[in-house]
Specification:
This protein is an alpha/beta fold and 331 residues long. It has a single domain, classed as Alpha-Beta Barrel (TIM Barrel). The chain has helices spanning 41-59, 76-86, 105-108, 112-124, 148-164, 178-187, 206-214, 232-244, 271-282, 292-303, 308-324, and strands spanning 2-5, 8-11, 17-19, 25-26, 61-66, 89-94, 136-141, 168-172, 195-197, 218-221, 251-253, 260-261. Helix 1 (41-59) crosses helix 2 (76-86). It starts with a strand and ends in a 7-residue tail after the last helix. The model has no long low-confidence stretch (mean pLDDT 96).
Length: 331
């Protein structure tokens, strides 16, 4: 069994310690028309390489999954250049974002089969003329429920998953609709353990998390450090609760951070928030570093009684099992 990275296939044993949901570069549609939204590509590449090397040398991370939706500035050639220079395994995805903030008009008009054909081509042949092949499928839904249009893209993802065998990584908005995503995948014939239901840590309710793991999928605690969605103390409490209930093998930890962003954010930012970001940027701390999970969150888990073996199993064994398509061990 192999995992497709942006620089070619690797064996499962080469994945090593893996961050399952991070981003290198994000650009929402329309940013290219903003004259103030400049992008210094060489400078960005140098900074991204520096940050990935820091992950490798300081914290032993070997693989970095970037499930950037197609329409959010996904640049396969850029990912490949950064992966080669940093010597990091980078996995990219095929798939679109959710209706409220994505789904280009052209693709909204396509049939399920046409969308699936694109996904399959990007997985088996490559993205555009880059030669870079996607190693997973991205699915995204909004809140509070899956829309009819989003359902079309879920159906296409199911067709592509069954045709190619690559796993599915999802976005849920504010921790909503994870069980509904699971139901859609089951209806489409995709085994639950081939799906990672993302951003579940955006929902503070332990009962919600229990529904996800009981459904047999992997559960994403993959917005660690995004404090405007949830305090990390709540994330840590809920994660440890799942481990103690026997679900360590289903938990994926990551941060949903980025290294570069085109233009302004896709929301209005307060003056206070902008001042804080500017101050951090002046000392090289904005965007926030990928190392936060290890420097700040892992100590929270240790304080709550988790051993290093339990913690790093979630970062090493679980991604390997997920990409390998192995059945989950019994809770």
């Amino acid at each position: 069994m192999q995992v497709q990275t942006v620089t070619g296939p690797i064996g499962l044993d080469q994945l090593g310690r893996t961050l399952m949901h991070e981003h290198l570069f994000i650009a929402f549609a329309g940013a290219e028309f903003d004259p103030l939204a400049t992008f210094d590509r060489p400078a960005f590449v140098a900074e991204a390489v520096r940050r990935l090397k820091q992950l490798r040398t300081d914290h032993g991370v070997r693989s970095f999954v970037d499930p950037c939706p197609i329409e959010l500035g996904r640049d396969a050639a850029l990912m490949k250049e950064i992966a080669e220079k940093s010597e990091m395994n980078v996995v990219c995805t095929t798939g679109f974002y959710f209706e409220e903030m994505g789904l280009p008009i052209y693709w909204r008009a396509r049939t399920v089969e046409e969308i699936a054909e694109l996904y399959i081509r990007e997985i088996t042949h490559g993205i555009g003329d880059t030669g870079v092949r996607a190693g997973a499928i991205k699915v995204a839904t909004g809140a509070p429920a899956i829309t009819r249009l989003e359902q079309k893209f879920l159906d296409a993802a199911c067709i592509a998953q069954k045709a190619t065998g690559v796993p599915i990584i999802t976005h849920t908005q504010d921790g909503h609709a994870g069980p509904e995503q699971q139901a859609a995948f089951a209806a489409g014939g995709v085994p639950a353990h081939r799906c990672l239901i993302g951003h579940c840590c955006g929902n503070a309710d332990p009962a919600y998390h229990q529904r996800i793991v009981d459904g047999g999928s992997y559960i994403g605690f993959d917005r660690i450090g995004l404090l405007r969605f949830q305090p990390d103390e709540v994330r840590a409490d809920n994660l440890v609760r799942l481990v103690r209930n026997g679900h360590r093998a289903q938990i994926m930890m990551s941060q949903d951070r980025h290294c570069g962003w085109m233009g302004k954010y896709a929301r209005q930012v307060s003056a206070e928030e902008q001042a804080r970001m500017d101050a951090l940027r002046a000392v090289g701390q904005w965007p926030p570093l990928y190392t936060y999970l290890f420097t700040d969150f892992v100590p929270m888990l240790r304080e709550r009684g988790l051993s290093d073996n339990e913690i790093f199993s979630m970062l090493e064994d679980n991604p390997r099992r997920f990409f390998g398509g192995e059945a989950l061990p019994r809770a």
